[in-house]
Amino acid sequence: MKKLLFWLAASALVMLLLPWLAVTLLKGVNGMAACLVLFFALNPLYALLAGAWAGLDAKKLWSVPLLTALFFLAGTWLFFDMGEPAFILYASVYLLLGAAAMLLPRFIRKKR
Hints:
mainly alpha
């Protein structure tokens, strides 16, 4: 349970707090650059990391990639544009990355 709570807090931090900070603190071109870094670099890396870590205990942490994608969707809809369908595509990609990364520990264990 502690692992799940840790990943919920981390996902909330990365997927909710960072977009809010980008929108609130950075204006104009700087805010757009920060959002591009978030959407194309930081968020996919976090989705991969969270999925790979969840794959170590998939029975208990199977929901981590799903919750990560949902937090992203909630954060972008709250701070950017409510109901924007492009963010559903991003959330779907993050979900797929996290789910695929959950398989990594299984493949590594089979190789040993």
